[in-house]
Amino acid sequence: MKSQERSELLAMLARESYFERELTLSSGRASSYYVDCKRTLYLPRGAYLAGELVLELVQAAGVEQIGGMAAGALPVTDAVMAAAHRNGLDVRGFFVRKETKQHGLQQMVEGAFKPGLKTAVIDDTITTGGSSLQAVDAMRVVGGNVVAAIALVERGEGAVEAFARAGLKYSWVFNAEEVRAERAAHPLAG
Fold first, then answer.
1. 92-116 pLDDT, tens digit each
2. Cα–Cα separations (whole angstroms), residue 139 to 7, 31, 55, 58, 156
3. What's the CATH code of the domain at 36?
4. 46: domain range?
5. Alpha-carbon distance 46 to 23, whole Å?
6. Which is nearest to 148 in space by CA: 173, 166, 131?
7. Domain assignment present for 142
8. Is residue 190 part of a domain?
9. What is the tens place of the pLDDT at every residue in 8-58?
10. pTM of structure
11. First and final C-alpha spacing in the chain
12. Contacts of 54 (CB under 8 A, 6+ apart)
């Protein structure tokens, strides 16, 4: 992985996306910190860096399309799509709705999804893998050949084991401890 770009993105995540306070995660678990990757992914340089680095994981996984549950997967999927274009790679992107749309084509999986292609579920931050596995179920219902899971930030709270049980190869750019350590090493001026 490109070390200079990785270091720069880590610093951005620590500065823009890391918060210490008591809250409840989407998994239902309580936590004393939160990594809100969208705050970095919606900055031009953050989107560029995340796209390039996650694209390396997409290539290593040998998948042809990526997507995950809306809304967490949207900015990282979009960043990877832009990176794939810049690098001349043919990778498709899509997203999974929490429930089937009641109008239009009434689809649960939207975007450039194509049945049968090697697929990775993707998200910005993954804790237990619960919402990603819900997305995997939806992808498989419509013919997705889901073989991998990819995260920008892995929290280390059960996803590794959950994806292993589901038969998915799991990779990530950062673990949450790296982001926490970077923030501790460079606290924000108050």
1. 999 999 876 565 556 889 999 999 9
2. 33, 29, 20, 17, 24
3. 3.40.50.2020
4. 3-185
5. 25
6. 166
7. yes
8. no
9. 999 999 999 999 989 888 778 888 999 999 999 999 999 999 999 999 999
10. 0.93
11. 33
12. 76, 79, 80, 83, 122, 150, 152, 173
